[in-house]
């Protein structure tokens, strides 16, 4: 038998409401794979059992791009008349209640450039099965609610594939005599097919046994390509910290005797939580001081944590269907955020982490939620699930989980988690089940809270207050609304926790007397559930300055008519460090909006002394964590400023922000130099929060100083570049040199530094990515320069990291150049999306999203953006992935 299935049908949406339980469960899966790069032979034997509770009567299997050699049901070859195939779906009707299916397929890993299913990477074989990659290996009921026990036998040439890994425990290995060998793996846990994994090839590992809290020893391994063993230590340390943290914070133990991490340079996403065999993008594993920055170190820690934490939130309890994706992702992001915050430990350290997370949410998720791809945390429909691994599912999903934490408190949340596992361990469930566990454990009615899952869009909360000096009352009125999003014109009120404090004139928190506040309490969680509500504080001795939405207690945009003086007061005194930072951002945003308007009107630009003074005071306040000061001194990004406008003018925003930077640099020069000198970190590199914070502030100071066009600051950057003993300092110096605004003669020296950097690190793929990225976002890099860089021998679209380093960075993070008035940026974008569509639809669709907000630009730009979108939409053989994104953008 020989057949191929190709999906040629037009993209069609699938709906959450259409969920039907599978007609058959799968109990066991035995797989045998003869591994080869050109060709891999897969034999699968599975036992199925009819699900009497389903309306579905057929055996339904999915397959994609398979060459099928054999299909046997209970030992008998299936005849063509006994099954049907449509697109990716095979149906076998009239099957008995108990079935053994035997399937043989052939696949071609080297031809798999989509990096989904089984593919080749640097001569090794790697799988990626989430969300629907398993069907590219064999026919299977490839849906997350079908959970089975897997045994996997791997056979391969010993020289080419000395290491053979799969999920669970290694139960047997040996020689096959003919230069080939085998390994047999058994995963003792039921799992959905998306968690299946194999890795085969020339890999080496750092390993360690680690004593678990329950006394068992677990073998931990980090596998990398030979030559990278000097870069695995941080990942190993992070893994051990993750295991300990989940034991201590949530009482969750590692359930396997062996836990493996594998790093590959070819990966569509950050990492993948396959049971016992996590597969990572090298970006989130490899680190040593000379190649990785502080941000890389922190990223590794959080992603190692994230994937490890999935073992409980995702693997032991998984998703019923892909509409429930945020059940595992939102929860696991919340867990990794808390992990990173707990590791820093201090209150400001936690706040710094919180600010960083909120920055991402605002910059990327708020924008998504206001555009054509806006979707609820639990979507109602999609065309291609790969397009729904979004900041809404992940980051907003995490904010939703954080709101339970805020509403129920630390212990209440833990009770909810315990109840969730007690009820659902081993099951595939829905977001509603998580909500029910939280409600039941906390004894709370969380019915209305469901709207956070069903309604898209970023809610607006308008706050206003009236102080009554005679009665000593302070009445705070909160009013909520939510803009329309595709398919959702009207929204119902959300259940919004708004954490509030009141500051006195001396900057101290006033004690709060209001419903729900205990004596002495200085922060209270108000629950806004109606369209508008008034909360009254009693015994308020003086008119306070309100500190609203402390610690960003809900993913909303909050408006309050603050005066500049009130904001400066909050920036100087708020006991909630998040809101201190927030006050600074509000002050800055106001000014950047005005400056942008001034640029557009051709007026003179100026920055007021009051704002500069507030920044200076923060910069010089050495009682504050340097990381916190760095965040306050960082102006809102051009993308965040853009959200303030109905019609975005990227060049004017850029000019305004650059002006503000130069003015700050000018006014604070001496203070910046002092901050630079006071935050040097001599001695051996450590990625710990304290020295990393110093480097962050020092390098921010350097970047401001580089806006001061003087030989002296250029020399400062050049010396730092030459003498840097770690990548954080080296890269920061190179950034400063490349963006230096002075004498054009200095450009030569900057170019020389760029060339030196490349030469020194040409063999380190992750550093070459940085080299491309740094240039992609440089303000002088225009479309022509990007095209030139695309001709560099090290550039390729075939590797996702490399493609992203140059092209994504340019399209998403260099707005003033990408939106060149002649439309050349959009033409480049269209070419890239079309080229990537043929290679890797998932990566192409991500780049396609760069045009999401095209309706926010001037009519002249809009017209050019629309033309580019239409060009992509009209391309033949467009993947479902790209088609969905551009169709929705054009709708
Ligand atoms: N589930 C992975 C994570 O969040 C992300 C991922 C999705 C990786 C799809 C690969 C493919 O940890
Ligand atoms: Zn995840």
Automatic annotation (TrEMBL):
One Pfam assignment: Peptidase_M1_N
Superkingdom in the source lineage: Bacteria
This protein's UniProt keywords: Aminopeptidase, Hydrolase, Metal-binding, Metalloprotease, Protease, Zinc
Molecular function GO labels: aminopeptidase activity
The EC number(s) this enzyme carries: 3.4.11.2
Catalytic activity: Release of an N-terminal amino acid, Xaa-|-Yaa- from a peptide, amide or arylamide. Xaa is preferably Ala, but may be most amino acids including Pro (slow action). When a terminal hydrophobic residue is followed by a prolyl residue, the two may be released as an intact Xaa-Pro dipeptide
Start and end residues of each Peptidase M1 membrane alanine aminopeptidase domain: 235-452
InterPro entries: Aminopeptidase_N-like_N, Aminopeptidase_N-like_N_sf, PepN_Ig-like_sf, Peptidase_M1, Peptidase_M1_dom, Peptidase_M1_pepN, Peptidase_M1_pepN_C, Peptidase_M1_pepN_C_sf
Chain ranges of the Peptidase M1 alanyl aminopeptidase C-terminal domain: 564-891
CC cofactor: Zn(2+)
Every Peptidase M1 alanyl aminopeptidase Ig-like fold domain range: 457-560
Domain Aminopeptidase N-like N-terminal: 91-195
Group of enzyme by EC: hydrolase
SUPFAM superfamilies: Leukotriene A4 hydrolase N-terminal domain (SSF63737), Metalloproteases ('zincins'), catalytic domain (SSF55486)
Family of this protein: Belongs to the peptidase M1 family.
Name recorded for this polypeptide: Aminopeptidase N
The organism's taxonomic lineage, starting at the top: Bacteria, Pseudomonadati, Pseudomonadota, Betaproteobacteria, Burkholderiales
């Amino acid at each position: 038998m020989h057949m191929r299935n190709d999906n040629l049908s037009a993209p069609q949406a699938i709906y959450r409401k259409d969920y039907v339980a599978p007609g058959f469960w799968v109990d066991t899966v035995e797989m045998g794979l003869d591994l080869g790069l050109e060709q891999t032979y897969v034999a699968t034997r599975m036992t199925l059992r009819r699900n009497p509770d389903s309306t579905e009567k057929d055996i339904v299997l999915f397959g994609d791009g398979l060459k099928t050699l054999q299909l046997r049901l209970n030992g008998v070859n299936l005849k063509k008349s006994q099954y049907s195939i449509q697109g990716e779906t095979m149906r076998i009707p009239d099957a008995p209640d108990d079935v053994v299916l035997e399937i043989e397929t052939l696949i071609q890993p080297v031809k798999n450039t989509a990096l989904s299913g089984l593919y080749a990477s640097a001569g090794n074989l790697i799988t990626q099965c989430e969300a629907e990659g398993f069907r590219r290996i064999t026919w299977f009921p490839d849906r997350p609610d079908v959970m089975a026990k897997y045994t996997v036998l791997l056979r391969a040439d010993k020289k080419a594939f000395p290491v053979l890994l799969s999920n669970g425990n290694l139960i047997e290995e040996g020689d096959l005599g003919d230069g080939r060998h085998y390994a047999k793996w058994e995963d003792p846990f039921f799992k959905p097919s998306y968690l299946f994994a194999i890795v085969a090839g020339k890999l080496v590992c750092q390993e360690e046994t680690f004593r678990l809290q329950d006394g068992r020893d677990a073998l931990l391994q980090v596998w990398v390509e030979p030559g990278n063993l000097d870069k695995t230590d941080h990942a190993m340390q992070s893994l051990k910290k993750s295991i300990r943290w989940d034991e201590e914070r949530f009482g969750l133990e590692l359930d396997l005797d062996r836990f493996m991490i594998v790093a590959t340079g070819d990966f569509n996403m950050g990492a993948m939580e396959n049971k016992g065999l996590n597969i990572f993008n090298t970006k989130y594993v490899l680190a040593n001081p000379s190649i990785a920055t502080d941000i890389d170190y922190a990223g590794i820690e959080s992603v190692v944590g994230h994937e490890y934490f999935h073992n409980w939130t995702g693997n032991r309890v998984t998703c019923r269907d892909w509409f429930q994706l945020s059940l595992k992702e939102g929860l696991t992001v919340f867990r990794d955020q808390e992990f990173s915050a707990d590791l820093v430990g201090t209150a400001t350290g936690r706040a710094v982490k919180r600010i960083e997370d909120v920055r991402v949410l605002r910059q990327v998720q708020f924008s998504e939620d206001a555009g054509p791809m806006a979707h609820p945390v639990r979507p109602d429909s999609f065309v291609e699930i790969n397009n729904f691994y979004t900041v809404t599912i992940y980051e907003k999903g995490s904010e939703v989980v954080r709101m339970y934490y805020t509403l129920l408190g630390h212990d209440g949340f833990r009770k909810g988690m315990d109840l969730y596992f007690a009820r659902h361990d081993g099951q595939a469930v829905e977001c509603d089940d998580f909500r029910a566990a939280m409600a039941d454990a906390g004894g709370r009615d969380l019915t209305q809270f469901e709207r956070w899952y069903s309604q898209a869009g970023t809610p607006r909360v308008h706050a206003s207050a009236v102080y009554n000096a005679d009665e000593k009352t302070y009445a705070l009125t909160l009013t909520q609304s939510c803009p329309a999003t595709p398919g959702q014109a009207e929204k119902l009120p959300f259940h919004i926790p708004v954490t509030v404090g009141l500051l006195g004139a001396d900057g101290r928190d006033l004690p709060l007397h209001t419903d729900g506040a205990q004596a002495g309490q200085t922060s209270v969680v108000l629950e806004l559930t109606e369209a508008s509500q008034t909360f009254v504080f009693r015994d308020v001795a003086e008119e306070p300055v309100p500190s609203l939405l402390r610690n960003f207690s809900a993913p909303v945009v909050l408006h309050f008519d603050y005066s500049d003086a009130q904001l400066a007061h909050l920036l100087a005194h708020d006991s909630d460090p998040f809101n201190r930072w927030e006050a600074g951002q509000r002050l800055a945003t106001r000014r950047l909006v005005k400056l942008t308007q001034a640029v557009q009107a051709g007026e003179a630009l100026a920055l007021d002394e009051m704002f500069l003074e507030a920044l200076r005071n923060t910069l010089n306040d050495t009682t504050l964590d340097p990381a916190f000061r760095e965040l306050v001194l960082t102006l809102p990004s051009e993308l965040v400023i853009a959200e303030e406008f109905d019609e975005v003018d990227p060049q004017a925003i850029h000019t305004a922000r650059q002006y503000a930077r130069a003015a700050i640099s000018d006014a604070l020069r001496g203070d910046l130099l002092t901050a630079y000198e006071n935050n040097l970190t001599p001695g051996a590199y450590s990625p710990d929060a304290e020295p990393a914070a110093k480097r962050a502030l020092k390098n921010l100071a350097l970047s401001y100083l580089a806006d001061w066009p003087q030989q002296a600051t250029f020399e400062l950057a050049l010396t730092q570049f030459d003498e840097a003993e770690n990548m954080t300092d080296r890269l920061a110096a190179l950034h400063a040199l490349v963006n230096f605004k002075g004498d054009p003669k200095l450009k030569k020296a900057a170019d020389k530094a760029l060339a030196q950097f490349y030469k020194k690190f040409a063999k380190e793929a992750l550093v070459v990515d940085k080299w491309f990225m740094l240039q992609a976002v440089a303000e002088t890099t225009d479309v022509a320069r990007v095209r030139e860089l695309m001709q560099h021998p090290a550039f390729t679209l075939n590797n996702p990291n490399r493609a992203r380093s140059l092209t994504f960075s340019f399209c998403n993070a260099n707005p003033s150049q990408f939106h060149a008035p002649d439309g050349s940026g959009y033409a480049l974008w269209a070419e890239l999306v079309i080229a990537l569509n043929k290679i890797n639809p998932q990566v192409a669709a991500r780049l396609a999203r760069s045009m999401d907000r095209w309706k926010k630009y001037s009519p002249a730009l809009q017209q050019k953006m629309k033309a580019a979108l239409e060009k992509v939409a009209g391309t033949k053989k467009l993947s479902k992935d790209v088609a969905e994104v551009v169709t929705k953008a054009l709708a």
